[in-house]
Automatic annotation (TrEMBL):
Region entry Disordered, spans: 120-156
Positions of the Insertion element IS402-like domain: 17-93
Biased composition (Low complexity): 127-156
InterPro entries referenced in this protein's UniProt entry, alphabetically: IS402-like_dom (IPR025161), Transposase_6_like (IPR052909)
Lineage: Bacteria, Bacillati, Actinomycetota, Actinomycetes, Kitasatosporales
Protein name, entry field: Transposase
Length: 156
């Protein structure tokens, strides 16, 4: 099963996309836009996805994506990620994988959590009053104390 890769056996290179996972992702990807300027050939989507996953897995900056991986430049992968995000690829993939898990009876709803920050409020809360000003009074010092015992500036 596709999702089983993340659970149980650890994959040595998790940024490599399996054929099974690619078969689910590929139909969701938008076609390439028209080339405005003739330049280098377009990096294949699967290789760009591997570059995206490498950056997300390792946490490196996009510009430091190793060229030896054959995923294109970090900027290419970043642009592809942004375009796919705008096209709704990730939402579609989530629904496809959720359906696949549901059919395989692999969902365990006993551990589900709903975060209230994602539930829209029915009505607005009370209107906030004006913010208090701190300009008139002097704030208490957090680095020194007026008592002799706590002060570091006085000698014993």
């Amino acid at each position: 099963m596709v999702v089983g890769l993340a659970v149980g056996k650890r994959q040595s290179r998790p940024w490599i996309v399996s054929d099974e996972l690619w078969s689910l992702i590929e139909p969701l990807l938008p076609g390439p836009g028209p080339k405005l300027v003739e330049s280098r050939p377009r990096v294949p989507d699967r290789q760009a996805l591997c570059g995206i996953l490498f950056v997300l897995h390792t946490g490196i900056q996009w510009e430091y994506l190793p060229q030896e991986l054959g995923c294109g430049s970090g900027m290419t992968c970043w642009r592809r990620l942004a375009a796919w995000n705008e096209a709704g690829v990730w939402d579609g993939l989530y629904l496809v994988l959720l359906k696949k898990l549901r059919v395989a009876k692999k969902l365990d709803w006993s551990r589900a959590v709903i975060d209230s920050s994602h539930v829209r409020a029915a009505r607005r809360g009370p209107k906030a009053g004006p913010a208090r000003s701190t300009a008139h009074g002097r704030a208490a010092s957090t680095t020194s104390s007026p008592t002799a015992r706590a002060s570091r500036s006085q000698s014993c």
